[in-house]
Amino acid sequence: MADEKPKEKPREMRAEVTVPYEMAVGSNWHRFFEGLKEEKILGTKCRKCNRIFVPPRSFCPRCFDDNEEWVEVGQEGRIETWCYSNLMFPGQTLKPPFVPVQVVLDGTDMGFQHRIAGFDLSDFEKVRALVKFGGRVRAVWNKEKKGTIFDIDYFELVT
Amino acid sequence: MRKMAIAQFAQSAGVESKENLMDFTYRISKEVLDKAGLKRSEVGCVVIASSDIFHSGLSCANAIDWDGAGAFMVEGTRAEDSMFAFIYACMRIMSGHFDTVLVTSIVKGSENPENDTLTGFFADPFYMRPLGINETTAAAMQMREYMQRCNITEEQCAKVVVKNLGNALFNPYAHVRKRVTVDDVLNSDVVSDPLKALECAPKSEGVASILLAAEDKAKKLTDKPVWVKGFGTSMDHFNLGDRDLLNGQLKIAAGRAYKMAGIRNPKKEIDVAEICEPYAFQELLWCEKLGLCGDGEGGKLIDSGVTQMHGASPVNPSGGVLAMNPYVSRGLYRLIESAMQISGSAGGHQVDKKVKTALAHGTHGFAGQCHSLVILEG
After folding, report:
1. What burial class does residue B323 get, using C-beta atoms within 10 Å of its C-beta: 0-12 exposed, 13-18 middle, 19+ buried?
2. What letters, b where the CB count within 10 A reaches 16 and e where it falls short, cover B357-371?
3. Helix %, strand %, coil % for chain A, to 5?
4. Among residues B40, B48, B35, B49, which one has the least CA distance to residue B6?
5. What is the DSSP letter of B212?
6. What predicted TM-score, i.e. pTM, was given to this entire model?
């Protein structure tokens, strides 16, 4: 009979979506990553508003003009803000706990995102006692360079 | 209705760009603004067409699209199809809220997997997707029905490919540019019988950008404004089983556009048509539904030669989507070609006749689920 109830509960279907892409990095990111291999952090400068972008941008999104001037920026900077991340979920690239940070590198005009590490991160209270809003940090280079953002291994606290 | 016109436009060529999506987008958007002598801050608003998740592997447009299109901190919106994006832009001018709108469409086909890896995701996950229904299998079933019910031959469908790829030889922006014969088409690999490989559109790179402006503004931004006279859209049911595949929504969309543009006899009044034909036979079917020939006469239409570049009613002088298929962007490519034909700037692929009125058509979804068209006039 059509009005008979099904014996089972309606099921759920497990689905996973995997789609392969080959994304062009482009000349701008390429030059930045090549710089990292040489332990240099490169930025670009807008000739109109004079802001220094790091990571570099090939154009200024505000002035909408080409950024043609490349500059090497400082490897130390000021912590603009930070957080403490301790949840794991599918797609998460770093193993928790980790400390995302936004650093204003010396000689630049915007926050550069990376992570703070180099000491025991397992206890949040201990981390909070050391990581200070406005505190100084310095890039620590990975010995093995792959031309990715992890050529900078992490930022360490400058004490 | 507030009068508005295409003031400037730019398009990328179909060849693979080594630049990333954002920089690729920036170059074309910037080119349009430079041609118009307009600063980014002087643009009223920005509309973007992108299908981020599957056509660029991103789940949010912000990270790539907005900055490249000049939309940083500018009022904007987006559509997944560029003809619809253009129509949104028209509405934004008609509302009186803005005098200029930049419409940019973004697809970098070289980065994507095969078209049907992506179109398979249009299908519902429980029933159609496991059965292998995607845009090509849907089109192949539509083609067989068309051949059976309207006595269309495989040769007639193949002639569309010969015409369009031949036209593309003269279009430097096209992706596939080669002279082929009917036999080449019929002997190309069978993709999903009766569809052959050469009858299916490629996977192309394509950023296109159009600056739309209200009348007074348009006259300041260009010497040759191309006026928007009307537009129409319509959408069918997604379930192929609950549709007449040969009589979908195109007639309704066309009726809306023709009424708005005051067109009574499209066959006579449309000087050139740019039609979205991801599969060769669809050009014939869409021509019927657009009223460029009678119902069931698509085969006769191609046989007559009138739709050739130098015929009486040229269709797809650009080479169409068979020659250049940046999925989401293809609507803007149809509009840009139409605008070029009207302004007489199409160069080697300029049609012989004087073009006053042009039709640009877009479609996406299985077997022409969604249709849109825009009527332009010089």
Report:
1. buried
2. bbbbbbbbbbbbbbb
3. 15, 30, 55
4. B35
5. E
6. 0.94
Query: What are the strands, taking DSSP E only, across B110-246?
Result: 190-192, 195-196, 205-214, 226-235
Count of structural domains within chain B: 1
Whole-angstrom Cα Rg for chain B: 19
How far apart CA B130 and CA B138 sit, in angstroms, is 14
B13: in domain: yes
Q: Report how far residue B145's alpha carbon sits from residue B122's, in angstroms, rounded to the nearest whole number.
A: 22
DSSP 8-state assignment for residue B129 = T
CB atoms within 10 A of CB A128: 11
Q: Chains A and B: how many Cβ contacts under 8 Å?
A: 63
Residues of chain A in contact with residue B108, where contact means CB-CB under 8 angstroms, are 24
Q: Choosing among A19, A22, A27, A29, which should be mutated to test the B contact, i.e. which has the most B CBs within 10 A?
A: A19
- In the block, residue with structure tokens 């931004």: B221
B72 and A61 in contact by Cβ < 8 A?
Answer: yes
| Non-local CB neighbours of B42 within 8 Å, separated by 6+ positions | B100
Cβ-based neighbours of A69, under 8 Å, separated by 6 or more: A44, A45, A47
Q: Are A110 and A55 a contacting pair, CB within 8 Å?
A: no
Read off the pLDDT of each residue in B227-256 and give the average, rounded to a whole number.
Answer: 95
B130 contact A CB<8A? no
- Three-class DSSP labels, A21-77: CCCCCHHHHHHHHHHHHCCCCEEEECCCCCCEECCCCCEECCCCEECCEEEECCCEE
In a domain, B338, yes or no: no
Contact indicator for B338, B274 with CB cutoff of 8 Å: yes
| Structural domain harbouring B84 | 4-113+203-221
Let me know: does B280 contact B305? Beta carbons within 8 Å.
no
Closest CA to B74 of A62, A66, A60, A59: A62
Distance CA B67, CA B149 (A): 49
Q: Tell me if B93 is assigned to some domain.
A: yes
Chain A residues within 8 A of B126 when measuring between CB atoms: 13
Structure tokens belonging to residue B145: 């029905």
Asked if omega into A97 is within 30° of 0 (cis), the reply is: yes
Q: Is the ipTM of this complex over 0.90?
A: no
Residue with tokens 């994006």: B85
Q: Let me know if residue B95 belongs to a domain.
A: yes
Q: For A71-125, what is each residue's pLDDT tens digit?
A: 999 999 999 999 999 999 888 889 999 999 999 999 999 999 999 999 999 999 9
Strand pairing class (B357-364; B272-274): parallel
CATH number of residue B210's parent domain: 3.40.47.10
Task: Please write the tens of the pLDDT for every residue from B115-139.
Answer: 999 999 889 999 999 999 999 999 9
Residues 6+ apart with CB under 8 A from A139: A41, A75, A76, A114, A152, A155
3-class state of residue B279 by DSSP: strand
Distances, alpha carbon B365 to alpha carbons B29, B80, B126, B194, in Å: 27, 11, 18, 19
